[in-house]
Amino acid sequence: MTPRPGLAFVSLILIAGACLLIFLVLLAGAVDGNPLDKIYFLQADTSGIPNAPVLSRWTFWNICSVSSANTNLCPKVHPAFPLDPPSTRNFGTTQDIDVAFIGTRKYYYLTRFMFAFVLISLFFAVCSLFLGLFALCSRIGSFLSSFLCSIALFFQTLTAALMTAAYVMGRNNFRANNQSADIGKYAFGFIWAAMACLFLATVMFCVAGATSRKDGGTYSRRTRGKSFFGRKKNTRSRGSFIEKQNGGV
Question: I need a labelling partner for 191 at 20 to 30 A (CA). Which of 14, 61, 115, 173 fits?
Answer without folding.
Answer: 173
